[in-house]
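Hey, quick one: can you model this chain's 3D structure?
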Amino acid sequence: MKLTVIIPVFNEVGTILKVIERVKAVPFDKEIIVVDDGSTDGTARILEENKQGLKVLFNEKNSGKGAAIRTAIPQITGDVV
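Sure thing. Here's the predicted structure for all 81 residues.
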């Protein structure tokens, strides 16, 4: 069984790498989908530079957590989200 973890992100330049590392450390077969929801603080750049092992998606403008999750849904391949 594969777990899909969706991480909606908006202006998290100071914390996003820590969050991703903590999720990666969880001992499950998983995919991690990170959706940047129009960040303006450099979060998108950090995600571009550190996207190995992740599915990274970008929304052009901030539309909220629900929109970020809806962006991720078509990319899900896990059995549990």
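One thing worth noting: The chain has a mean pLDDT of 97.
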